[in-house]
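Milestone M4 deliverable, item 7.
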Amino acid sequence: MQRDNKNEVIRRLKSVEGHVRGVAKMVEEGDVTYAEIVQQTNAIFSAIKRINNLLLKDFVEERGGRDGVSEELVKDLMKAIERVTK
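Output delivered:
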């Protein structure tokens, strides 16, 4: 994994971890609605999807570079992945 991407993935994972703790606290305290909890868990889900996209992008770029794939093909693959994982 590329160093910059690794740092970004770790940063995002720590953010998700904090968010999950916050939602757990909301549930424990019980002073929130189901809608608020669902809204927060949906935000966590979206953050994880963005992490997955970053990991996939890193993989495609790394593997494409190693196998001599054109930048254009890498960009096209990433667009397709982003469409599917929206």
